[in-house]
Amino acid sequence: MLHIILFGPPGAGKGTQAAFLQEKYNLIHLSTGDIFRYHIKNNTELGAKAKAFMDKGQLVPDSLTIELLESEVIKHADAKGFIFDGFPRTSAQAEALDNFLASRNEAISALLSLEVPEAELKSRLAERAKTSGRADDADPKVIENRIAVYRKETEPVKSHYQALGKHIKIDGIGSISEISERLFVAIDAL
Ligand code: AMP
Questions:
Q1: Does the CB atom of residue 37 touch ligand 1 within 6 A?
Q2: Each residue of 135-147: pLDDT tens digit?
Q3: Which CATH number fits domain 2-188: 3.40.50.300, 3.40.640.10, 3.30.70.260, 3.90.930.12?
Q4: 10 CA to middle of ligand 1, Å?
Q5: How far is Cα 32 from Cα 86, in angstroms, rounded to an integer?
Q6: What value does the mean pLDDT of the chain take?
Q7: Which pLDDT does position 69 carry in this prediction?
């Protein structure tokens, strides 16, 4: 099975590119951010808990996030593989994901890391805020915080997969189709 982590800071283009990968490789796209937003929209208890963190640009606690992710994977018994988008975001989540997959005799195939300079991220997020309706895109302070949290808590996940020989850097600057092509080349070479 193909299990891809689509990695990168907020605004790197993970969601956009995941849609292309999902279609080309017939994978299930799991975005923890999208799942939390679905819960918020439907006024669930989990949604209320997650919203308090998301609105400030903080991470939702690992325990909640890991449980949610595992329950989503289990729902797709016939999947050919998954694109994990926005997960794992901490070293603890990476370890939990590896252990969970190992318990199913599976493993992460690769972490594809979209590399985009910070100034470009901020301008992309400001552009996205015009149409996304996301409170966390609209406030520059929240954006700053999301990027800071990424650097501190999430970037170490790269080293985790680097140590396993599974980290692949992808240039995240260019047209959407140029970036998809780079991802396809990297996946086809696995
Ligand atoms: P995203 O849609 O990936 O930008 O995520 C939006 C927000 O959802 C993040 O800023 C976090 O508050 C929360 N979130 C999404 N995925 C995770 C995760 N794996 N761990 C913790 N919080 C998350």
A1: no
A2: 899 999 999 999 9
A3: 3.40.50.300
A4: 9
A5: 6
A6: 97
A7: 98
Task: Compute the distance from residue 59 Cα to the ligand 1 centre, in Å.
Answer: 6
Taking the C-alpha atoms of residue 14 and residue 112, their distance in angstroms, rounded to an integer, is 10
The one-letter code for the residue type at 8 is G
pLDDT digits (tens, 9 = 90+) for 56-103: 999 999 999 999 999 999 999 999 999 999 999 999 999 999 999 999
CA of 169 from ligand 1 middle (Å) equals 21
Query: Quick check: CB of 18 below 6 Å from ligand 1?
Result: no
Q: Is the CB of 10 under 6 A from ligand 1?
A: yes
Please give the model's pTM, rounded to 2 decimal places: 0.97
Query: How does 97-115 read in b/e, with b if 16+ C-beta sit within 10 Å?
Result: bbeebeeeebebbbbbbbe
Domain boundaries, the chain: 2-188
Ligand 1 touching residue 54 (CB < 6 A): yes
Known active-site residue 151: no
